[in-house]
Amino acid sequence: MGDKPLYSVSDLVYLMARLRDPETGCPWDLKQSYKSITPSTIEEAYEVVDAIEKEDYPHLKEELGDLVFQAIFYSQLAHEDGLFTFADVVHSLVEKLIRRHPHVFPTGTLNPEAGSASLDEAQVKRQWEEIKQEERKGKGVDGILADVPIALPALTRASKLQKRAAQVGFDWPDADGVLEKLQEEIQELRVAISQSDRAAIEEEFGDVLFTCVNLSRHLKLDAEAALRSANAKFVNRFEYMEKEIAKAGLDIRNQSADQLEEWWNRAKEV
Length: 270
Description:
Largest sheet: none
CATH topology of the largest domain: Helix Hairpins
Number of strands: 0
CATH superfamily of the largest domain: MazG-like
CATH architecture of the largest domain: Orthogonal Bundle
Distance between the termini: 42 Å
């Protein structure tokens, strides 16, 4: 950056206020609402993940900026409505993280007192969940599953629901039991398919997916990440196959199923 001074978070908050100025602001930004920008928020979050998975760290800096801007945008809207400011958002976040890390901040402040290094990772996770449960009770949320966001991607939400249920002992003891359950669910799906019952097929297929997420959890895998990896592998192989067919002077659209299978097997060998 040379000698050029760096912009600060305060500058970003000021910029957002300028964009929303009723008289001199940006027409597009002025038309936006909480709900209208939520698709962008989701998109920006996934672009952050995409940059990380590609190990594109220069691009990650840009994507993180875009994601931070979403928080600034919501905060400006809230400030205009008299609800809260971005400073309030930061304060609440720091306060919550201090509260959830008593082993690091034993006095409940940012003062540099030494915390406890005696807790292992499992103990920290258990403590974290206990504190979160107390927070939920303080908000009047008593149900174990009550505040798992409905808007989460389905695989992620399934995993969170299962983790919450596991906290009270409602869980399989190991992956073997889940594998047996998966076979059971697949058989029930086969029966529904044989009966051409569309409603039952959808229900049983959902059960298969839900059980697959359960299996990934017991295998200590992230179902979303595993599926993203499978998607990427499919894209790489399909694009390779597409290019090889074109190199041979052929059109992929004119290949038979058997021919495509042969090309696919070649792609798998690369």
